[in-house]
Design brief:
The chain is α/β, with parallel strands linked by helices and about 250 residues long. It contains seven helices and eleven strands.
């Protein structure tokens, strides 16, 4: 079974070399470069990757284009800020050679700077695991600008055990700023599709999302980091709604 490693990047010349080196075990590497102006293309060429360049407004369109460009039977989808360990690489190789399933989830270790933050992620602000290994044709991204929905077909296999390293943000300031960027993109989606819900519903969602991240997903074990992540996860839908309602400027 042929395995394609798919890496989506935009101006990631600092982190791309390590990411590509970590997926060199795949039969091919595909790099999708979205409106890139730095040295990312030269880095991808040096690594021997197949390159797809373009300009995509929507995250789902960009990712689907990369999936279509892959020639492998199986696809490992990672971002430039993610690193596959040798243990995970070996488990992926073993899985694609024996699995009869359509997809497998990969657990994620999220880092903010040097700090490993394992608990409390979710509610559209982070991922503790994702469908990162799948057969081509079984995973399609939606057209939302941020956190696009997934359409999955076929049987889910057992989750992998080795963990992917995700360098989420360089520091806590970047994590907080990400709320503004994500909510602006989400506001554009809400304006296009319509947002029938009143503000009061989003206020209730703030508390339910906060509880899910801080309590149910044990964000409290991360101290202040878990508190901030839970608050940001709760604020994301509320701030997006307010921006969409009040016509906030596009900050893509």
């Amino acid at each position: 079974m042929k395995l394609s490693a798919l890496v989506v990047a935009r101006n990631e010349e600092t982190r791309l070399p390590a990411c590509l080196a970590a997926v060199a075990f795949a039969d091919e590497t595909v790099v999708v470069l979205d409106r890139t102006t730095d040295a990312s293309r030269a880095i991808a060429e040096k690594a021997g990757a197949r390159i797809l360049e373009g300009a995509w407004e929507r995250e789902g369109d960009r990712r689907n284009a990369g999936i279509d460009f892959c020639s492998g039977d199986w696809i490992l989808e990672v971002d430039a800020d993610e690193l596959v360990s040798p243990e995970l690489a070996a488990e992926i190789r073993a899985t694609v050679s024996t699995s009869t399933a359509a997809r497998h989830s990969i657990p994620v270790d999220n880092h903010i700077g040097a700090r490993l933050v394992r608990h409390g992620w979710g509610a559209s602000f982070g991922k503790s695991a994702y469908w990162g290994l799948f057969r081509k044709g079984t995973k399609v991204w939606g057209r939302e600008r941020v956190h696009p929905r997934l359409t999955l077909t076929g049987e889910a296999g057992a989750p992998l055990h080795a963990r992917l390293r995700h360098e989420v943000d360089r520091n806590l300031s970047e994590t907080i700023l990400r709320l503004d960027r994500y909510s602006s993109a989400r506001a554009l989606d809400l304006r296009e599709t319509g947002d029938p819900d009143p503000t009061s519903r989003y206020v209730r969602r703030f508390f339910s999302r906060f509880w899910k991240c801080y309590v149910a997903r044990k964000g409290y074990r991360e101290g202040g980091y878990g508190l901030v992540i839970a608050a940001l996860a709760g604020l994301f839908p509320l701030v997006s709604h307010l921006k969409a309602r009040d016509g906030a400027p596009d900050r893509r």
